[in-house]
Amino acid sequence: MKARKLYSDNPDYIVSPGETIRETMSHLGMSQAELAMRLGLTVQTVNRVFKGEQPITYETANRLEMVTGTPAAFWNNLEMQYRGQLTKQREHERLANDLGWLACIPYKELIKRNVIKSHADRVMQLREVLAFFGVSSVEAWCEIWENPEVAARRSACFATAPGAAATWIRLGELAAQRIETMPFNKSIFEKALQQIRKLTRETADNFVSETKRLCAESGVALVLIPEIRNAPWNGATKWLTSHKALIIVNLRGKAEDRFWFSFFHEAGHVLKSNKKQLYIADASGSPEEVAADSFAAEILIPQRYNDSILKVSCSDDVLNIADKLSISPGIVAGRYQYLTGRWGIYREMIRRLQWE
CA-to-CA distance for 126 and 159, rounded, in angstroms? Predict the structure, then answer.
């Protein structure tokens, strides 16, 4: 019979080590009763070993070596492989019941980004996705990402597409694991933010690496993760440990003012919010989000400059205020649009960012 593969090297038709013992017994011209006698085991015990119902213990393997002349290591390895295949088979059957869950995960996007491999076997694909999330079952995934007590503290948008949201956050977590940071220091991070603020005048080629460096020296891993469909937010914050914070931002909207507002919004969470929560920027109006918005707005352009910005009448006025504040003109133009609601004015002054 041709065996179908469970995984790349695990057939679903599994042969018990007992079959090999039976073949060896036959080759030596022994009956089952004689083999049992030579091994010092009961016929019933040998029969259970033949069927795979009872494992070959180290002691039994040593006895088999003496009786058959085949090394104990051979029997031990055969038993280990057999039990491993049985475990894979049970796992395959268990995962096959959860294939519907894949529909809520944008795994094809992960394949496209070369984060996970593509598999024709749906069960193997499910296993690959679960491994990406670092969990062994869909139940465990739900406990982490959909637990009501945890989800209630997250963005309201999270509830609409938890699979997409969790995927984006997980990409950030994995990227952050590869970033070495100093232990978090609030004072150093606050000073770094002032330096980063000045970097808004630089091009992306210059500000990205330098911003990441300043964050890492403060105990914050900054990662830029391309946006995922059905995850409609620009940033998120999470503490990976008590000494390492994670900030994730993307280029949704591709405007520099939005990017920098998102970054400083998340920085506000790092400085002011609970370390045990995951924060996803949205328009929920929660006290935490309002506070983070205020922090970002104030550090970029203090509120006292709003009147001057409202009086702007030409692009030179925008440039003058930007020079005075040592900040990108595009951020000033963005503040003007926000204050006036005239979203088309000075649009050309706001630089567009794009992924390499």
Answer: 22
List, for residues 63-95, the tens digit of each pLDDT value. Answer: 999 999 999 999 999 999 999 999 988 999 999
pLDDT digits (tens, 9 = 90+) for 250-288: 988 889 999 999 999 999 999 987 777 777 766 567 788
Number of residues written out for the chain: 356
User: What's the first-to-final CA gap in the chain, in angstroms?
Assistant: 51
8: confidence class by pLDDT, cuts 50, 70, 90: very low
pLDDT number for residue 284? 61
**Run of H or E including 239:** strand 235-241
Domains and CATH numbers, the chain: 5-96 (1.10.260.40), 100-145 (no CATH), 162-297 (no CATH), 301-356 (no CATH)
Choose the weakest-confidence range: 49-58, 132-141, 231-240, 341-350. 231-240
* 125 close to 101: Cβ distance less than 8 angstroms: no
Taking each helix axis from N to C end, the angle separating 315-325 and 329-340, rounded to the nearest 10 degrees, works out to: 120
165, 158 Cβ separation under 8 angstroms: yes
pLDDT in tens, 143-161: 888 765 455 455 565 667 8
d(CA 250, CA 248): 7
Residues whose CB falls within 8 Å of the CB of residue 152, separated by 6 or more in sequence, listed in order? none
pTM: 0.82
Parallel/antiparallel/unpaired status of strands 220-224 and 244-249: parallel
Q: 3-class SS at 280?
A: strand
Kindly state the tokens that stand for 194: 């002032």
Those residues with Cβ within 8 angstroms of residue 201's Cβ, 6 or more apart along the chain or in another chain = 322, 326, 327, 328
Helical H segments across the chain, by residue range? 17-27, 32-39, 43-51, 58-68, 72-96, 107-112, 122-133, 138-145, 148-151, 162-177, 186-198, 204-218, 256-272, 287-300, 306-310, 315-325, 329-340
Q: Cβ of 84: how many Cβ atoms within 10 Å?
A: 12
